[in-house]
């Protein structure tokens, strides 16, 4: 029983579109059969041809697509939204209202108000909405979450999460034809957050996902380091979680030489864990009393949650595409009536937007510690 | 322009079948549309359903399949052979003779004589034959090969290659329902080589692939460590390459605790390189004079050969499935008239079988140093 | 030409006293010949016997020692101060006034006022004063400093320094006979800083040492996590350097499972460097364009500053004692008229105390961003 | 109660002499008070001055030294032998016959016959003889030995030991003034083994030390890679231990780019361990069933054998000098009547020489598998 999917966005020049396509189809649960891959008709057709989408299911815009697919017996059941941020809301809302499930690249929307509105639309639609916070799809991130939830570490006391990239160390957005850099530096397409919205939210989300705790307060230093850049490219945030645990969140796109280094450490009363995206198939546990442990993806001793999301025996590396595919597979489960509880939903989308907007505003106003939600300090 | 593929083998319980399926389809170049997945009709149908293969293209055996597909306008163009070793020859030969390209899991055949015969059949067929020595598909293995070929290290002097697993430390082949262990320990299905044929050939192949040199002589210690096991489970081989370079090849399936640790070090006159499957997206270069270098997959500074086989920016891990997919993609190129020069071919298959047979025989006879080919010492 | 040294503190039960002794004597430049190792006469004598100090040069207190040694032709030339913090000022001041050079464990004094007074005393004494910020003695830390100073990274933009320990995750200070924990948790002996004064200053110092930049402003979250502990055991500080670079400093003694993990990353316009105390003999450089580099201690390609402070060829690990010994050797050079410019001096001591006092106060008052020196925000 | 030591060899230009001096004195148990540091009187005096040896205890040769020191009430009790290999026998024999304990750098002697003769002299002398196989002094190597001895891994099945250096990739021995390279490449000073005698024996010794097993048979490929070099610079040896376990020993000084990479892996029935000199303060255990473990030096959970030989809390790296010092400290214990059982003795010296001579001869004669002792195959 495979599911039929349409994609909006993701045409030639996109980094994330092809990843969504490979991830969606990897397990044979979902097939891409329709789409609006580009506003440029030639590019639209080019993407369709490369991906085996029939020409009659390539559409000029998402409204046309939703209308046409609804009319087909073999119409799509879900839409994958991989446009720049500013279109996320419109496409997602239209699809949901058109009776389709939506799986969207993050962030959910351009801003917090849109996210809250989208939450209402999701609730009214009766359809599933999923957000591809990719890193939550890694088996060892899920193992980490289980370990914390089981209480192996005791109460969480300290969280350090760092997501450092260096590729925006120069003003690439001013170069012609750098699509990746240019839309990210454009507030109209990205929203109020630059680095914080692009990768800071990933760090924020994984910290909450693994600890099962919620950030309540924060003190943010959101900065623009490269002169002339309209949005932030470096942010450092002190965190306070709902159980009193302290945290530090570091995200940067001007850490020259850094590739895509997301590292999370969680310390409890009895021990700590560390996961790093540079070496995603291991999880390190350090204990107050006793040897450190290194857990390897694919091992029989892992939790069911982790074992469910590897495809290969231990020692056979799986990576980013497979992590992404895990989210798609979970989403397929959810659509087909399973739990799918681990797919980030619109509530996570709202939290992510709140984090971005509040941090940017608080840092701009030199406001010190602020709450994530509401105005109380 | 996608290619249509059939698979033989790979049904429920197979490890490598699903990997071939995911790898073949990952890039949208090849689609699985027909197959003989199992001799058990129920399992055959089950695999087909899971992978979207139409019921009318699921066949009871490969002869029926080849005949039927030849008669279709949309018949398959290539066959993926993922059965146990003893069927590799028959299926491959039949497919080639039926005018189909063949991509086969390793080893090419059950023994050297079959491999040599298959080489003749390939030559006569005018069709492409590829062998999935997976590790040659990793971007950093290809970078390593380029570095040696460019002469950056100077002449190769020493090669150390180790492929250690521990999963056969106990006699799993005597457990009911351990399909992975049982066929590997059965000479009728595996051939004369156990560990050496299963993973030793990978080590042998990657050493030759990266260095561009050929093993000429060897001195082998091929052993059965777990009592009662019919085939070897540990082998250690001293090597001499055609340029006089020395080497050591270690392969084991009784190195308890080892997962799937394939590591290759190549030392030349000016420096050395090391690649390890545990951390496949980096390649380390150590120099006689100067800092060590760590090259990261996906980086712009890599050779075209390495850059061509990543799908993601640096810092986004790719793994085993992607490496496998690179071999399929190259094979698709080869079929469509491109170079595809890096797909291991039947000549490599013959060498691999010669390595296994000669090493096993020489070790059994306590023969000391022997040549890989022929009888001269 | 070896120098004669006395030690104050460091008797049985001390961790750092024996380290100072080994470090001072390692290179044959300095010999321990006198001391006040403990207020307990038996322990005092025991330490002396273990270290080959003649009984007539073991003194009941530092005043007696300074007086007696001044009267000897072979009297000591320098004093090593390894007492708990609250005695640092008295011993250091008395020794300097007695015409002796002083090398002191950090922090320089119990509080900022004392540090400033000690600075005056040093200036008036004409003697050398050195502070053992151990980590500045590591060869690869010195190499890092040279790399930044040479401009290889371009202007520094971002600094992340983390010093995490877990050994105070439980209230060890309430256990009998835990000398290491008890004095550290006692404000009378430690000063106003717990974790921040014990290890936070190391992180602060190494960040300034390597970057050559000065912290101007900070926003601190200094916390007591273990209930009932009188001093802080966890601190997280946002930093702003004098060139506008941003930084994050994390120090903790309740990061359960962490051993002694000091890691520094410095990012400039062109690349970044990372040094970690867990693997002290390497320095990693990551570049915006080009392969990463790993520099190994003891290599001929390193700067003279780094090469001067290894004793062994590359590949032979040196550690904490050797790093400590480098500071002693530099101090011997300084005494004997050489440059010794890299020995942290009383000015560093004053900065460290200012960092601790200002961070503790600002965090307590929820003051947000504060300057390190003076009151201006 | 410290011990008084003389040194023979180790003057200016020596690498290992200063290491022995630092190691011997590190713990305050042994003091260097006499010596013959060089045949060159000026260098002899220079070393003495640097190390605080009184001029009247610097001697022109070891015979004069032994005679004179025997006549002093405060004469030395032990002699450290750090000359090139060809003098080890003479100096050791003379010292033992002169009633002094001997601690010698490896190898014990120039050849096997001398080693056997020295064993008789040791036995007749009633004095202690120790051999500084440095790597046995590392805490985590001792922990590894305990783990195997306790049976945690089950019976040992496989051993892989590799000691790779690259510094002799060029014919440095032909350069003027390269004392380190020139004596090593001179059979008159080194004996029949080049690389195998210099570092191969370390690999051999650590394999036997950790496993507690004895090599019975071997098949060696001992080679000279750099043209014109009189001794071997690369060797690869297949091993068979007395319990049937298989092994591979790799030693090289032409592995360009390698620094001093000694790595040992031991696999038993239930798991394996790996220790690497590049990261000496950890020991990794991999298990057939269960997470990997990483043990850290200085931890409270380690065996008494490992805890006894660290000086610092966990997380504070110790290195080569400290490992060396552990052997000296054990030797001091042995002299003073303690067990000191872990100091390698002359029996290990004899085994090491047998390994070198038999391997070199067997490889030269293309003899295949040979026994380590005697002639039986």
Task: Describe the protein.
Chain A is an alpha/beta fold and 377 residues long. Among the domains of chain A are: 3-131, Rossmann fold; 155-268 and 345-364, Dihydrodipicolinate Reductase, domain 2, CATH 3.30.360.10. The first copy, chain A, contains twelve helices and 14 strands. The first copy, chain A, is globular. The B-D interface holds B 153-154, 157-158, 160, 162, 164, 166, 169-170, 219, 221, 223, 225, 234, 236, 238, 246-248, 250, 252, 254-259, 265, 267-272, 285-288, 292, 366-369 and D 153-154, 157-158, 160, 162, 164, 166, 169-170, 219, 221, 223, 225, 234, 236, 238, 246-248, 250, 252, 254-259, 265, 267-272, 285-288, 292, 366, 368-369. Strand 13 of chain A pairs antiparallel with strand 13 (292-296) of chain D, so a sheet runs across the interface.
Gist of the model:
Chain A is an alpha/beta fold.
SSE inventory with pairings:
Four copies of one chain form a homotetramer.
Chain A: E1 3-8, H1 16-25, E2 30-36, H2 41-51, H3 62-70, E3 78-81, H4 88-97, E4 101-104, H5 112-125, E5 129-131, H6 139-150, E6 156-164, H7 179-184, H8 187-190, H9 195-211, E7 215-223, E8 234-241, E9 246-252, E10 261-268, E11 271-276, E12 282-287, E13 292-296, H10 304-307, H11 320-335, H12 346-364, E14 369-371
Parallel strand pairs in A: 1-2, 1-3, 3-4, 4-5, 6-9
Antiparallel strand pairs in A: 6-10, 7-8, 7-14, 8-9, 10-11, 11-12, 12-13
Q: Per CATH, which architecture of the domain at 155-268 and 345-364 in chain A? A: 2-Layer Sandwich
- Count all strands of chain A and give the number: 14
CATH superfamily of the domain at 155-268 and 345-364 in chain A: Dihydrodipicolinate Reductase, domain 2
User: Strand-and-helix sequence of chain A, N→C?
Assistant: EHEHHEHEHEHEHHHEEEEEEEHHHE
How large, in whole angstroms, is the Cα Rg of chain A?
20 Å
The CATH topology assignment of the domain at 155-268 and 345-364 in chain A is: Dihydrodipicolinate Reductase, domain 2
Largest sheet of chain A: 9 strands, mixed
Query: Structural class from helices and strands of chain A?
Result: alpha/beta
Distance between the termini of chain A: 51 Å
Strand sequence of the main sheet of chain A, in spatial order?
13-12-11-10-6-9-8-7-14
Largest interface: B-D, 44 and 43 residues
Mean pLDDT of chain A: 95
Gross morphology of chain A is: globular
Name the quaternary structure.
homotetramer
The parts of chain A where pLDDT drops under 50 for at least 5 residues are none
In DSSP terms (H or I, runs of 4 or more residues), the helix count of chain A works out at 12
Specify the helix fraction band of chain A: 25-40%
CATH top level class name of the domain at 155-268 and 345-364 in chain A: Alpha Beta
Strand-residue fraction of chain A?
A: 15-25%
């Amino acid at each position: 029983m495979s599911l039929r999917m349409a994609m909006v966005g993701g045409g030639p020049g996109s980094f994330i579109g092809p990843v969504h396509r490979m991830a969606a189809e990897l397990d044979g649960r979902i097939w891409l059969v329709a789409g609006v891959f580009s506003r440029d008709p030639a590019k639209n057709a080019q993407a369709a041809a490369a991906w085996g989408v029939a020409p009659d299911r390539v559409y000029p815009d998402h409204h046309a697509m939703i209308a046409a697919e609804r009319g087909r017996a073999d119409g799509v059941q879900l839409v994958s939204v991989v446009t720049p941020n500013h279109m996320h809301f419109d496409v997602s809302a239209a699809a949901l209202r058109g009776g389709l499930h939506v799986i969207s690249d993050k962030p959910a929307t351009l801003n917090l108000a849109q996210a809250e509105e989208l939450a209402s639309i999701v609730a009214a639609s009766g359809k599933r909405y999923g957000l591809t916070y990719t890193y939550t799809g890694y088996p060892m991130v899920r193992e980490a979450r289980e370990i914390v939830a089981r209480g192996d570490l005791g109460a969480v006391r300290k969280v350090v999460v760092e997501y450092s990239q260096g590729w925006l160390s120069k003003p690439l957005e001013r170069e012609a034809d750098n699509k990746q850099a240019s839309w990210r530096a454009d507030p109209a397409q990205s929203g109020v957050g630059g680095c914080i919205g692009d990768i800071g939210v990933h760090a924020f989300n994984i910290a909450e996902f693994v600890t099962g705790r919620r950030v309540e307060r924060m003190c943010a230093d959101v900065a623009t380091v490269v002169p002339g850049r309209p949005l932030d490219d470096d942010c450092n945030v002190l965190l306070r979680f709902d159980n009193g645990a302290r945290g530090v969140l570091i995200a940067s796109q001007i850490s020259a030489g850094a590739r895509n280094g997301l590292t999370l450490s969680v310390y409890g009363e009895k021990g700590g864990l560390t996961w790093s995206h540079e070496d995603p198939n291991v999880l390190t546990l350090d204990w107050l009393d006793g040897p450190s442990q290194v857990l390897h993806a694919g091992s029989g001793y892992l939790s069911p949650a982790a074992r469910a999301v590897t495809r290969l025996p231990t020692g056979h590396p799986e990576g980013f595409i497979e992590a992404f595919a895990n989210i798609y597979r979970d989403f397929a489960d959810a659509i087909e009536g399973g739990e799918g509880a681990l797919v980030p939903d619109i509530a996570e989308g709202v939290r992510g937007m709140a984090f971005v907007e509040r941090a940017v505003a608080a840092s701009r106003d030199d406001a010190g510690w602020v709450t994530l939600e509401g105005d109380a300090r």
